[in-house]
Amino acid sequence: MNWTQLPLGPLQTNCYILSNEKGECIVFDPGAEGEKLVSWLNENHLRPLAILLTHAHFDHIGAVEQVREAFDIPVYIHKEEAEWLTNPALNGSARFQLGEISGQPADHLLGNEDSLTIGSFSLRLFHTPGHSPGSISYFFEEGNAVFAGDTLFMGSIGRTDLPGGNHEQLIRSIHDHLLTLPEEVIVLPGHGPATMIGDEMERNPFLNGF
Known about the structure:
Layout: E1 2-8, E2 13-19, E3 24-28, H1 34-43, E4 47-52, H2 58-61, H3 64-71, E5 75-78, H4 88-91, E6 108-110, E7 115-118, E8 121-127, E9 136-140, E10 145-149, E11 152-153, E12 156-157, H5 167-178, E13 186-189, E14 195-196, H6 197-203
Parallel strand pairs: 3-4, 4-5, 5-6, 10-13
Antiparallel strand pairs: 1-2, 2-3, 7-8, 8-9, 9-10, 11-12, 13-14
C-alpha cells in the first residue's frame, strides 16, 4: 500500500491518499480545491472508499462535499465534532476571510473505537484532543505511518489558541498516544513535511522532557 501527500488550498493543508494495489483508497482531510482533488483521483485511476477526518477545522474539510458527492462515499469524524461540518462558527471558517464552509453531517461518528477497517485498510484510532476536541490520529501499522492531523508537526505541535484548544491536553495526547509508537513510525502531519516519531522525541522543543 502507498500514501501520497497533496497540499491543498491557501493554507497548504495536507490531504493524504492511502491506496492499495487494487486501486482502492482512503482520502484523509480533503481540505480545499475539490475539483483538483477529484481530477487527481480519477487521473490516477483510484476509487475512494471513504473520507477520514483528523478533525474538522475549515482548512481540513473544504473539499469534503465535492469528494463525497463525486464518489458517493461516507465521511468519518469524531463525535466531539459531529456538528462542525455543518456549522461555520464551529469549524472556524466564519472567523477567516476565506469563505464560510458548511455541508452535510458526517455519515459515521467515531467514539471509543480502537480500530477501524474499511475494505482492506485497517487502522488503529487514537483520540488525540488538544488542538481540537475531536482530533483523531489514525495509525496505519502495515505502512508504519500515523496520520496525525494538526497534533504533531516536524519540530512543532498544533496550535491551541482556537476554541476548544488546550495546550496541556495536547501535550498529554502526544505523550500518551504518539510517542508510545515505535521510533521509526512516519508522522504524516496536517501541514508541512513528514517526520518520524524518533526524530520528534529527540529534537522537538515542545516535547523536551518526555
